[in-house]
Amino acid sequence: MSVTLAIAGRDFKGFFGTPLGWIAACIIFLVSGIVFYIVVQMLLIRGQSIDPVADIFGQILNFLNYINIFIIPAFTMKTMSEDLGNGTYRLQASAPISTWAIVYGKFLGVMLYFGVIGIFMALYPLYSIIFTEPDLKVLLSGWIGFILNSATIVAIGLFIGSFTKNPIISYLGSAFFILLFIFSGFFPGIPDWYRHSVNLLELSSEFTKGMIKTGSIATYIAIISVFLFLCRFVMESKKWRF
């Protein structure tokens, strides 16, 4: 456990020690600010009362779940492919460290970053407590959906990144595979249960509406577990090649 936390801490600090972490944070907050302004203006034009959680926070999270498809692969690229390329994983593999500890550490390191982002995103509706009474249940469910959706994309990104030392291939491959994974549910003849399971954007939108379904949580956990297991399998196979 200590090894996992050490790896997670190293990666988490590394994100803020390079332009990547700050640029991504700026993009996320800039986009969320723009979405915040647009949603508020649209509601005011329509003369509708504004629910700061459902109307604003929910729309911001929905949009962030879209752009995370392209932002998160940059982090999994850094933590996985760069370590494979610069020899860090070779050193870790030669040490008495389990492959699971390495995979979990990298997963946790990326999730710590996006967990912090999620906390700052929650400040939008929390600030409105001064003026109104937001639905905290919707706020909590939306935040849970954002974290689960981010964790799923991180797990997929780590799996794809474990195949290559090339950061560019890792990034493009991860983004492409995530999109393919989501849109595979729209292929002809695909069962409805599969279509609903792989459509991460639809799953996350349920949470922003205040719906916390056991089935949706189980689906997220299952997808995360499968891709982390596959990532561990690929990393373990590389260990025996050294």
Automatic annotation (TrEMBL):
Its main location: membrane. Pfam families: ABC2_membrane_3 (PF12698). Keywords: Cell membrane, Membrane, Transmembrane, Transmembrane helix. GO terms for cellular component: plasma membrane. Residues 56-192 form the ABC-2 type transporter transmembrane domain. InterPro entries: ABC-2_transporter_component (IPR051449), ABC2_TM (IPR013525). It is a multi-pass membrane protein. The chain crosses the membrane at residues 20-44, 56-75, 111-130, 142-161, 168-190, 210-235. This is ABC-2 type transporter transmembrane domain-containing protein. GO terms for molecular function: ABC-type transporter activity.
